[in-house]
Amino acid sequence: MTWIRPDPGGRPPGLIRSGVDPLGSVFAAFIALSVLALPLMTARPNRIAEGTSLMAWSALPSGHALALGGVLGLAAPLLALRVAPRLRVAAGAAALLLLCLTAGWAADHLTAPGDRYARVSPDAGWWLAFVSAGLALGDGLARLRPGPGVRIALLAAGALLTGLALGSGFWDQLSVLREYASRSDTFGREVRTHAGLALSSVAAATAIGIPAAILARPVPALRTALLAVLNVVQTIPSMALFGMLIAPLAWIGRTVPGAAGLGIAGIGAAPAFVALFAYALLPVAAATVAGLEAVPGPVRDAARGVGMTGRQCLFQVELPLARPAILTGVRIVLVQNIGLAVIAGLVGGGGLGVFVFQGISQNAGDLVLLGALPTVALAGAAAILLDAVIDASRLREQRP
């Protein structure tokens, strides 16, 4: 399907085709529903009190409410129609930007000067519109098919703009940032702990899972046994696995000389790391086996025909061709472990789960968001980065 249609009369090609885009119309309908029928913001006198849900025209000054309606009213038809991908990207980006501005405007409007206890947070309408606009933007970018370098540049630009906005104080009146202000001394440490647990567990699983899969692949019985054992581990619920590790790790910490000095104990980072490592092994090993099995037989025969040894064939032919599949497995486990690392907060392992479970115990939803939103952002950034690396690897292999 082409988006630039030449005009029979010789006029310049247009950007809009006739007809309705099915997926875009869903995004447009959700955006319209969120603004017209759902509350945009919630205002509370303090962090745990019952809140008052406010529609857009009550949560914003009249001028800002008109700006919100005007921009979203223009963006929604562009998403619903069959338009060029760059128009779809522009519409999604404009809606997303205005919703971010709306959150700051509403927080300033609804918070009395000097009030340190009031809490203003986005309600269902804002979240539905934000997610819909974000998905519409992602859909437009996917249709444009940007290269790996462009995707990484867009990710860096988004992170830079978000950092500048946070540093400017524009959103300081929002409830989630008020929660951050009271925990700013520990937030950075928990983010580093969270990222460290996810990255180290994936690195360890990669260092062990890939060699294990390489050694087991030539022997069908050994390969089947390896994947079967790892599959059993994968089926254990995360909470159960964390709990099962407490007793044996506590025993090791008490009885093995030097284990306690290394941080091995029944609670803390040790059970969190071991559980995340165990969950990461199956996708890494399975992706390695699948990638090596996908190498065409004639390619192996050609490598042997030019005199390559088995070792040379593995490292110079098979593994390079299997690299995209292996990296796909690493991408899966990294995103998975960034999310699962939240559970480490329950066993004293630290990380962003500390804020999530504190918020649940205190009935403070915005404190939950203080842990959940950075987790989602880290997982999304990791997925985009590794997708770009995988595509770059595929492009490199396709070059003559």
UniProtKB/TrEMBL annotation:
| Family indicated by similarity | Belongs to the binding-protein-dependent transport system permease family.
Q: Record's Pfam families? A: BPD_transp_1 (PF00528)
In this chain the ABC transmembrane type-1 domain maps to 191-386
Where in the cell is the protein located? Answer: Cell membrane
Q: Which UniProt keywords apply?
A: Membrane, Transmembrane, Transmembrane helix, Transport
Organism in which the protein naturally occurs: Methylobacterium longum
Record's protein name: ABC transporter permease
The record's principal subcellular location, in a coarse class, is membrane
User: Which residues span the membrane?
Assistant: 20-42, 54-80, 87-106, 126-145, 152-171, 191-216, 228-252, 258-282, 338-361, 367-390
Q: How is this protein positioned relative to the membrane?
A: Multi-pass membrane protein
